[in-house]
Amino acid sequence: MRVASRTVFDFVRQSGATAPVETELLYQADDPFAVTMNFHAGGAVATWIMGRDLLAEGLVAPAGEGDVRLRPHAGRVLVLELISDRHVTVFRVPAGTLRKFLDATYRLVPPGTEHFDADAFLSTVLR
After folding, report:
1. Confidence of residue 4 (pLDDT cuts 50, 70, 90)
2. Cα 79 to Cα 72: distance, rounded to the nearest angstrom
3. Which of 16, 24, 36, 58 is the most core-located residue (most Cβ within 10 A)?
4. C-alpha separations of 72 from 2, 17, 79, 94 in Å
């Protein structure tokens, strides 16, 4: 079972100007700790996987210390930073959109009930 949502995030250029980027949010019950974001731009798709808890924390306070950081900004907007070896990509994210998506994931797998099947994961990896 899964939750999927399509939305638009605003890519923030270095100049401060923004450009809309179609973004797909995906959550799968068999990987209950992760959220996948697919960013569609210029005919290409960039995929980032991040923790569901990080996204929930970022709704109310700065969250993330590594490649993914999220923080509240100006009321109903969040700032999402994706950090790679070559770039820091910044998006403005509607807080309500992310909150609705997370609420749907919680209906599927409530917080605290997540289970990770390490044996199944290892059998897949070691094939």
Report:
1. very high
2. 6
3. 58
4. 26, 19, 6, 10
